[in-house]
Amino acid sequence: MKVLPALEDLRAYREGVFYGGAEIFGAHYIDDEFRFLVYAPRAKEISVVGEWNQWTPGAHPMVPIEHGYYCTFIPEAEEGQLYKYHILGENGQEVWKTDPYAKKIRWGQESPGILYRTKDFPWEAKVDLGENLSIYEVHLGSWRKKEGGEYLSYQELAHSLLPYVEDLGYNAIELLPITEHPYDGSWGYQQSGYYAITSRHGDPWDFKYFVEEAHRRGIAVFLDWVPCHFITDAPGLSYFDGSALYESDFWEDAYNPQWDTMNFDFGRRHVRNFLIGNLIFLWKEYGIDGIRVDAVAHMLFRKEDSKEIDRHSLEFLKELTAELKGKILLFAEDSSDHEGVTKPLMQGGLGFDYKWNMGWMNDTLRYFKMDGFSKSQHHNLLTFPMVYAFSEKFLLPLSHDEVVHMKGSLLSKMRGSYEEQFSQLRLLHLYQYSMPGKKLLFMGGEFGQFAEWNAFTTLDWNLLDFYSHLGVQTFVRDLNLLYHKKPALHDNDENWQGFSWIDVDNTQQNFIAFKRIDLEGKSVVILLNFSSKDLFEHRVNLEPGTYRVLLNSDGEEYGGKGRGSFGPLEAKDHIMVGLAPYSGMILEVLHD
Question: For this structure, is 465 an active site residue?
Fold first, then answer.
């Protein structure tokens, strides 16, 4: 007896709420044969074509079983064989489409599905995330490659990338999109298969191994997720059944000229079920710990320069967070000033856990590119982010977007001599780690990659043969260790009780000082010199006590010259401290 999907599930997928599409759609091995199920309501005819029938349209026709749904059973089909849907549209259009629910796809321009029998994985390790969230952002295809230029497998990455991340002190890794995409140059943001982990690095089992190994090392795995738009390539979702199915019927709403892609139509119930079901699938099937929702601003404000929020996008985002909040961490990459992104749904917010602080990132990098005089004139770029720092729960990103498209690497953004560039890069890292907000750094920034990121090559690992680069890496490692060790740097990020200015308006010396305070009232002191000049015997007003230096960014072990204060500093009502050019330090008071 053939096993058919429940009609109530099919109707709920089309008209209501049904997130379990991965369990019924696509190719499933049932009773010694593969069952195929697809939703294509405006198709006239559909057949499954593949290697077993020499890609012959009509050889294995699909039968309509409910309005818009087509199903068939093929005993000849075998695991590992390639397949597609051959669809005849209502106006006679002939299209060859990749299965939207394919669990495995051969990457490339044609992107055929690969018949795959899902296997249970022996999950064991779990990871517990606290407030000390420190994320290493990675593009798997260009982190490292084999000698011949081939991609590393998921298992090879598990035994090379993950030990590296653990050694540097990161407790989370964020992967640029790794669901299937045909073109390397899209970095994964233009996708052909939402339910298929890219086969560039292996099969689904291999990726599960990668996630398990990450968890075993105490590293959470976050995925970059792209629900805004999809590729226009012929095998993809665009005009899937010969007409608009995942996009709007209206071209001006469907087409996205910014990325030459198609926008999802969030007003359609099956689109919401497809996407939210996709997140649930990635969480349950692969054990991921969080996702970054890409291009939230573009979703909320579909028209360029529009101030009007797209109602369907807003409803979709709220539905998404209502379903996933508390199960995985939800990050919003939102460059707009829309309020309440991380506010709970019950309070009228969007319900995300964290919002990327794009304003902080833009202001910070703009400031670091300036000469000393310009910095004095734009001191507010350092201080203004604190005006809105607690309006949302923020993550401070130094991401991939800032080191591509002729923007240069983090190191190359810095002015001055070779030595001054490295000093400023260390200072940038210290500034990021000392400010309220969770942390994210894109690969290469941790050792001072000179060239901007190129997705077709690999990082310049030979730079670690030079002490300046090795010093930056050592500094980032020590920053992470201190960040995790000192609650004042991470556990009171969301209100003014965790932050206090000491010196905020020193525009002449390009200097700021502040305290970070933990939930028990213990504090650390942050001193940052953004100028090209030494600060000798610089007065900083502090409470009485003996202060020790926890970290000095000009330390010789970091590639600096060992200048500034390192020993204990006595204060009755102030300390006199030395800071090297482009350097900073973290102090704490010694208690009896």
Answer: no
pLDDT given for residue 587 in this prediction: 98
Which CATH number is correct for 134-336+346-370+394-407+438-462, 3.40.50.720, 3.40.50.1820, 3.40.640.10, 3.20.20.80?
Answer: 3.20.20.80
What's the distance, CA 38 to chain centroid?
A: 30
CATH number of 371-393+408-437+463-592: 2.60.40.1180
Residue matched to tokens 């000033």: 337
CA dist., res. 177 & res. 472, Å (int) = 28
Segments of the chain with pLDDT less than 70 = 592
Catalytic option among 241, 289, 294, 334: 294
Q: Which of 319, 333, 402, 518 is catalytic?
A: 333
Annotated catalytic residue 294: yes
> Tokens 């991921």 label which residue?
288
The helix (H) or strand (E) run that includes residue 362 is helix 358-368
Which residue type sits at 450?
F
Architecture of domain 7-114 in this structure = Sandwich (2.60)
Secondary-structure breakdown of the chain: helix, strand, coil percentages, each rounded to the nearest 5: 30, 25, 45
CA dihedral (180, 186, 189, 194) in degrees, to 10, reads -10
Give the integer Cα–Cα distance in Å for 296 and 56: 42
Q: What is the structure's pLDDT at 1? A: 73
pTM of the model: 0.97
* Residue-level pLDDT at 592: 46
Q: Which residue has the tokens 């003014």?
A: 496
Confirm if 547 and 588 have CB atoms less than 8 A apart: yes
* pLDDT tens, position by position, 212-232: 999 999 999 999 999 999 999
